[in-house]
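Protein Record: Sequence and Backbone Structure Tokens
======================================================

Structure line: whole-number tokens from a learned vocabulary of local backbone shapes, matched to residues.

Purpose: to set a sequence beside its fold so the mapping can be learned.

___
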Amino acid sequence: MDSPFPSSPQSLFLLFKLLSNMSGSILLFDVDGTLTPPRLKETDDMKAILKKAREVGFTIGIVGGSDYSKQKEQLGDSILEDFDFVFSENGLLSFKEGKEFHKMSILEFMGNEKLVAFIKKTLHIIADLEIPVQRGTFVEFRNGMLNVSPIGRNCSQEERDDFEVFDKEHQVRAGVIEKLKAAFPDYPFTYSIGGQISFDVFPTGWDKTYCLQFVENDFKEIHFFGDKTNPGGNDYEIYEDKRTIGHSVKTYKDTIAILEKLVAEQQK
């Protein structure tokens, strides 16, 4: 039986060179529900443990479906200083050490005509829904995806919380997704439910694993923390990816508890 490990001197040298060029571990975090309470700002205890993680040698980064402005709203104006990597819209807009280094657009990828047809159909489907509350901003166009909200992103926090409960019972978002899949079977889209009120639509492969190409060759371990890790959730693909060590959390307090253990182990 052949050994799975390289045996020639040249292969061993290349493997050693690759490993020696890698840093230790990077900790990647979903934002909403993982680093913060849903749609709220980062808490002081979370800020403290993240700072401690950097002090003991971890590289830290965020990867979220939201655009940069929403990430900044939740994590603060110093977001580019507080995190080594910031991956907005799953990494389609990427920052390293405070500087933008990558950008990709869904408009460039799909073309205007196809996107307009998809958005029109989405709005027709939403208009026919029988749900208690609808507000405004049902389709939000982002650099790398469309965010679709049956209730509308202009809803209040109370309406957001109520819709989350309603959706768990009536599967509103899942139903809209099935209708869109049937209407556009040839579109290379992935649909991912996340947060309380919406789902993301993006080209297949543009989920959160997209960002891994920028870190997989530089770190020996990639830890990922997320709260939507079940199939269909927007953390599922990166959580299950063989390149990551996945940590599934239910609230930001779970994230703090895991970080405290990792920091303690790092200090031994």
